[in-house]
Specification:
Length: 241
């Protein structure tokens, strides 16, 4: 059994999809990030960075005590290696999948997150930041489009953890007003993955769905919610259990 410490963001959805794909039993432990559930000392013992998702594998390969993994890319690789699925064993195919996985966690994900922040959360008057991050996001999407013009899946001929890392962010792009119409190869790839039974299960389970307050085009947060999400000098970084 795996404990999935989860919030219904693209990073959390990546892991839910992988768990459904490999058929690994898991228990969802949901966190309200606006409420600051992730800031407790208890969760800090699981992920010192106080971000979601994280997993605790209570039945690790080879036995032994529970294994804790945080950071979505690391979790995907851990689960792929445990299950022997969705990550080639060696050579150029493995290198390609890991390269694109790292591209997502180091580039596409953070740039998409910054664009989302300035478009959806930040006060007015952020024109430079909005232009900066939306331009970089579109550049990265162009890289992805060109890749998918040549390859059925991001890492190569086969579906992999690289696709799982990228797909949820494209599924949620509507909240920034960015659809798939201008990206035909990406659109076709997106639909192929959307139709996978494991993806359908992960996106339809009630305990994995995003609450409405997470998907507003323009988010209005009160002072406490803002502090819980983004931090400020007047709010402790960690709260007691």
């Amino acid at each position: 059994m795996i404990d999935l410490h989860y919030s219904a963001t693209p990073n959390g959805q990546k892991i839910a999809i992988m768990l459904e794909e490999i058929g690994e039993p898991y228990r969802v432990i949901a966190y309200d990030i606006f409420n600051g559930d992730q800031l407790t000392e208890a969760y800090g013992r699981i992920n010192p960075n106080h971000r979601l998702p994280a997993i605790v594998d209570r039945n690790p390969a080879g036995g032994g005590g529970p294994v804790t993994v945080f950071e979505s890319g690391a979790i995907l690789q851990y689960l792929a290696e445990k299950s022997g699925r969705f990550l080639p064993a060696s050579g150029a195919p493995r290198a390609a999948v890991l390269s694109w996985l790292t591209w997502q966690v180091a580039g596409l994900g953070p740039m998409g997150g910054q664009a989302s922040h300035f478009l959806r959360y930040a006060p007015s008057g952020q024109d430079y930041a909005i232009e900066r991050y939306t331009k970089e996001l579109k550049r990265l999407l162009t890289v992805l489009e060109k890749r998918l013009e040549k390859s059925a899946y991001v890492g190569g001929d086969d579906y992999s953890i690289a696709d799982m890392a990228i797909w949820p962010g494209r599924a949620s792009a509507f909240v920034m007003g960015m659809g798939l119409d201008e990206w035909p190869a990406m659109h076709a790839w997106f639909e192929r993955i959307r139709e996978r039974p494991a993806v359908e299960r992960a996106m339809s389970r009630e305990d994995l769905k995003a609450p409405a307050k997470y998907v507003g085009r323009h988010q209005q947060l009160d002072e406490k919610e803002w502090s819980n999400m983004f931090g400020d000098a007047n709010h402790a970084a960690v709260t007691k259990d």
